[in-house]
Amino acid sequence: MAKTEQGNGLDLRGSSEKLTDNGTIGSYGSEPEVKGSVPGDTEVDKYGFTGGAQQTGERAEEIPIDVLRQREAKWLEMLNNWDKWMAKKHKKVKERCQKGIPPSLRGRAWLFLTGGKVRREQNQGKFQELDSQPGDPKWVDIIERDLHRQFPFHEMFAARGGHGQQDLLRVLKAYTLHRPEEGYCQAQAPIAAVLLMHMPAEDAFWVLVQICEKYLPGYYSTGLEAIQLDGEILYALLRRVSSVAHRHLKKHKLEPILYMTEWFMCAFSRTLPWASVLRVWDMFLCEGVKILFRVGLVLLKCTLGSQEKLKANQGLYETMELLRKIQPQYMQEGFLVHEIIELVVSEKDIEKEHHAQLRRWKETHGDLHCKSPPRMHGAKAIIAADPPSRQDLRQRPTIIVESPLAPKTDGQRPDDTKENGKTKEEKEKKTIPLPQGVVNPYLPPSNPSPHLKHLTVQGSKESLSSAEQDTYL
Q1: How many whole angstroms separate alpha carbon 444 and alpha carbon 396?
Q2: 164/34 Cα distance (integer angstroms)
Q3: Which label site among 36, 67, 181, 234 has the fewest CB atoms less than 10 Å from its CB?
Q4: Cβ(193)–Cβ(151) under 8 Å?
Q5: What are phi and psi of 379, to 5 degrees?
Q6: Rounded to whole angstroms, what are the CA distances from 283 to 139, 295, 299, 329?
Q7: Among positive and negative, which fits the CA dihedral 372, 378, 381, 382?
Q8: 3-class SS at 49?
């Protein structure tokens, strides 16, 4: 594997540093003293970054507020009837993912798209059980060494021992206990970190499980056989997409594993500017791994796809540098998303090439050492393979605010007698209708989960830990 840039967060060989050690960490500047915070005079962008290569500049697309509100309403309606939309209107779901999921609902949408919501409901208390265990010291030690490398310019992970790093340790440790035969791969850390930016630790854990088991099976297993196979698939597809780029890489014997490992294993979270990362993930979690192949093909075609572009990059070293530092215009949100959608690479193309490369692998290397489960190509395939019940998809608010208009539970109100004497029609006249698809946040569910009863907030001064609440919309 090619050596990665310092501080980019992916180093599969490990590190000598540890979260609990004293001394300096990384090369991104002084570390805040306050846990889970950045200095008060530091400017933070809308994604939470204080600087660094992934901080989004002026090229990030701005969506008009009225359009954003319309999209939020549409997504709320979809999430409230998720099984019906996935069964009958999946094409519309895909189109809305391509347009970009509203930031306020991105975490919840990712949870539903991946099937993480269903896994969580079917395994109530599982994460808490894993979280309470100490974990294998071997894996915990490696994870602790990696924590400070994950998005050090993001406010959530800037502080050593801060809340972001603590949750990241919890999620990754829980995964090693969930899949002890697989353990921990350092490329999982940025995946988990991206998820934690959008959802609580328990949700992030189940989405990570789905990504590792359904979307990218075998990627993080010993030997990295699955990623090597996908590298050969990418190389074969490139011949069809850009023969010029394919010939150039073949001429210099530049193996795919040298330039695409970090791209695919981290789902481009370490490569693209942040606005583009989020748009790619919206599509990836909806449509599956073909999106990663499309992104890789677009970057290779744009970077190496013409003789003019190759004139100044004739050698192996120059080509590697070019692929490590992709030109910004090729990674810009609007351009990249358009190219991804326009590029015709389907699940059938990938599976056909997968079988061809698997035959070649067996001829040269023998059978695969790690037997991975079949890859699921996106949300539709996941929900079709294991249809969820309505109960599993039901949205339960984890913070219930008592309405001042609601009846008191600790005793009768003075006018209870009058209310009880009214007819059903008179009571219904006082009901305030809500827009379709919107759930009244002030009313508790008719049959709340026993795990949620203790989360009722009695006063505005109380706060809940990140493990107990769902603060995103």
Answers
A1: 9
A2: 13
A3: 181
A4: yes
A5: -65, -40
A6: 31, 11, 17, 20
A7: positive
A8: strand
